[in-house]
Structures are given as structure tokens and as C-alpha cells.
Write a structure and sequence with these properties.
Blueprint (H helix, E strand, L loop, with lengths): L2 H17 L17 E8 L3 E9 L3 H4 L2 E10 L7 H21 L7 E5 L1 H9 L3 H15 L11 H12 L8 E6 L4 E6 L7 E6 L3 H12 L5 H27 L1 H4 L2 E5 L1 H10 L8 E4 L1 H13 L6 H6 L8 H14 L2 H16 L9 E5 L5 H17 L1
Parallel strand pairs: 1-4, 5-8, 8-10
Antiparallel strand pairs: 1-2, 2-3, 5-6, 6-7, 9-10
């Protein structure tokens, strides 16, 4: 599944192996690891364009040692497929590429560009793939590089790349990874102890689509109390009509010891529920933790402000400024109702793995959006080495 993508990168990644070096301090990047290399990943997604600058440690494949140096996005609403959204997306894509290459002097062979599976799904549904191809061609013209690789990845490829990039090798065959997105959810796990056999998991529900479905149920009564009631009904329907079946059909329960969740809602919950772990990319949680947090969103939402959360931190070793900044980011992305919806959806999925006799370990992954970059690097280097 990954070979078609890997071939696109084998040439310049073979050069990377010979010439990789630590980015110097003059670029303004504070590196965490010794002898590390910095990459940039730029993704055209359903909402807009995202860029991540990623520091990859020497033992990243074994330990998941990567560090997010910078992370930003521009909401261009590409999948509305209007003339303005096209131009805004093209500009954002080009600007981010030049930003990485010029401002931080990241070699072009270390800048990865992709179009997400979410865009592909919507474009195929509306018969607008020609506009996706036009965007790619226009981008190549603007940067003056007709050979630039901009693969359009499908759901299975994205799920595989995410697993390879996020989950360390030591837990490769015992972890079920689920990415809860805004419109849908996807993920899966490797079985038969190899990275060729992958069981794909998909749900048509995401944090935003759950919130939207709930809003429609509310009709004239827009009160929070009614939203809460209708959200429970929406989630109950999703659980009975799809979630239970999808989890059972995946066969993931008996095959997995660890259930890891990535995506925006996972980042948000991890940040708010364990602010003292602000520097941790992965946060362990229990089902009961999320149940209590769900009630807190509804009944004590004011306690989730940056001021309230930092005031409650007693550990003097925690940098409250960093915590406050990250909490503000969360509250800027998720309002109360979307946070309720995403958390509720997470609970419904977790519930399917919360066994009486066999307990699974749950984890929230904050940096899931950059997992595919490390997967590209690791898989391409491995394949280029084999091909020599």
C-alpha cells in the first residue's frame, strides 16, 4: 500500500541519508534531540492547509522520538470547491512551502506535501477531482518545481501512515489507533506481526459532524440543556447503528492491548484533563477519567479556561505560561458544544473496549497530525536502503 508513495520519495530521501545534518540555531529552532534532523510536512485537508515543522530524533522509529517545533494552519475550506477557496488554498500551500524553505532554510527534499484522504473522499463524492489535480499543478508552477511530489492519499494509506508514524515499534502489533477527525474517524491495527496486513477501521462520525447532527435535533430550543439531551440521543443512535458494529467487525478487541486515540479532540482533551503533562505527546487516561471530564464540560465549563486551569496547578516545575497558551489554543478551536460532542463520541468508542474481565489501556495522542511525516521518512529510508 505504501510502495506507490515511497517510490516518490526514494530519490530525494537517498540524498537525505547522505547529507542530513542538524539544523543550526541560526534558524531560530530550539532542538530537543542530539544529531536530529528537521522536516516540514504540509497537508491540504478538508478545513484548510496545515504545516508542521518536526524534529526527528535518531531513535524515532523505536521510541517515537519526534518533537513538534512549529504547528500552524490556515482555514481555507477547500472542499467547498469555490473559486475563492481554491485561490486561498493555493496561496496558503505556496506560502507555507516558502515559509519552510526560506525562513527556516529546510532543504526542499525535507519538505513533504500531501493532499489528505478527507479531501479525496469529498472530491470523488462531488466529482471534483479535477480541481484537486488543478490545485497540485498550479502549486508546482508557483514554486517552479514540476517534479514536486504531491500525493493524494486514500483512507487506508493515511491510517497506515499514521500508525507507523505515531505508534513506536515496541507496540506496533498490540495497538489499535483511532483518529477522531472533524467529519469522520479512521484507524486500525496491524495483524499477523507484519506491516503489510492492516485492518482498516472507519466511522462516519467525527467531532464536528456529531455536533452538527445534534444542532439539527435541537430545532427551536437552542439551550445548552436541550443540546445536552439531544447529544445523548445522537450518540445513542450512532452507537447502535454504527459504532458497536464497526468495533466488533474490526476484530480489534482481542487483538489489542492498547487503544490510542489521535485527532483534534484527543489533543484537546489531553491538554485540558492533564495540563501538567503539557510537554508529553501521549497522555494515559481511563474510561472513568473521560466520563468525569464529559460531565465537567457540561456542568463546570468555566473551570476549563486557561486562568482556572493554571490556577489549579500546584506543581512548581510546570510552566504555567506554556499551559495557558496551549489551553487558549484548545478553546480557540473547540467551543463548549463541539467539545461535548467530540468527548461524547470518544466515550462511545472507548466503551466498546472497556471490558469487565480484560482491561485495555487507553492513550490520547496530541501530535497525531504530524505522524505521517515520520512515517514517510522511516518507510522511504527503509525502502531506499533495500533497493540499493
Amino acid at each position: 500500500m505504501l510502495h506507490s508513495i515511497n517510490r516518490l520519495f526514494i530519490f530525494f530521501l537517498s540524498i537525505l541519508i547522505l547529507n542530513s545534518s542538524t539544523i543550526s540555531a541560526q534558524n531560530g529552532l530550539k532542538l530537543k534531540y542530539k544529531n536530529s534532523v528537521v522536516y516540514s510536512g504540509i497537508e491540504v485537508g478538508s478545513k484548510g492547509v496545515k504545516i508542521s515543522l518536526l524534529e526527528l530524533g535518531q531513535d524515532a522509529k523505536k521510541s517515537g522520538a519526534f518533537n513538534i517545533l512549529k504547528d500552524s494552519s490556515i482555514n481555507t475550506d477547500f472542499i467547498s470547491f469555490t473559486a475563492s477557496s481554491f485561490e486561498n488554498t493555493l496561496k496558503a500551500l505556496t506560502d507555507f512551502y516558502n515559509y519552510a524553505a526560506t525562513n527556516f532554510k529546510i532543504p526542499k527534499e525535507r519538505i513533504f506535501t500531501v493532499v489528505s484522504s478527507g479531501v479525496k473522499i469529498q472530491a470523488e463524492k462531488e466529482h471534483r477531482m479535477n480541481e484537486v489535480n488543478q490545485l497540485i499543478d498550479s502549486f508546482k508552477v508557483r514554486i517552479g518545481n514540476p517534479a514536486r511530489a504531491v500525493p493524494v492519499i486514500d483512507v487506508q494509506q493515511e491510517a497506515i501512515l499514521s500508525h507507523l508514524g505515531i505508534v513506536p515499534d515496541s507496540r506496533r502489533y498490540s495497538t489499535f489507533l483511532i483518529d477522531i477527525g472533524s467529519g469522520n474517524s479512521k484507524g486500525g491495527y496491524f495483524f499477523n506481526t507484519n506491516t503489510k496486513d492492516f485492518k482498516l477501521f472507519q466511522l462516519s462520525w467525527g467531532s464536528k459532524s456529531t455536533a452538527n447532527a445534534t444542532e439539527k435535533r435541537c430545532e427551536e430550543d437552542k439551550s445548552l440543556a436541550n443540546y445536552y439531551k439531544q447529544l445523548n440521543r445522537t450518540l445513542a443512535g450512532a452507537e447502535q447503528s454504527e459504532i458497536i458494529y464497526r468495533v466488533n467487525e474490526s476484530g480489534g478487541y482481542p487483538m489489542s492491548d492498547y487503544i490510542a486515540f489521535s485527532g483534534g479532540i484527543s489533543w484537546a482533551i489531553a491538554t485540558l484533563i492533564s495540563p501538567e503533562l503539557v510537554n508529553n505527546s501521549v497522555v494515559p487516561v481511563t474510561y472513568d477519567d473521560i466520563v468525569k471530564f464529559s460531565e465537567r464540560i457540561y456542568r463546570n465549563y468555566s473551570t476549563l479556561s486557561d486562568a482556572s486551569i493554571t490556577a489549579a496547578i500546584t506543581d512548581k516545575s510546570v510552566d504555567k505560561t506554556v499551559v495557558a497558551r496551549e489551553v487558549k489554543r484548545v478553546n480557540g478551536v473547540f467551543d463548549q458544544r463541539t467539545l461535548m460532542a467530540g468527548t461524547g463520541l470518544l466515550l462511545k468508542v472507548m466503551r466498546q473496549f472497556e471490558g469487565i474481565y480484560e482491561k485495555k489501556e487507553f492513550y490520547l495522542v496530541k501530535n497525531g497530525q504530524v505522524g505521517w511525516i515520520s512515517a514517510y521518512v522511516d518507510e522511504s529510508i527503509k525502502n531506499s536502503s533495500v533497493s540499493k
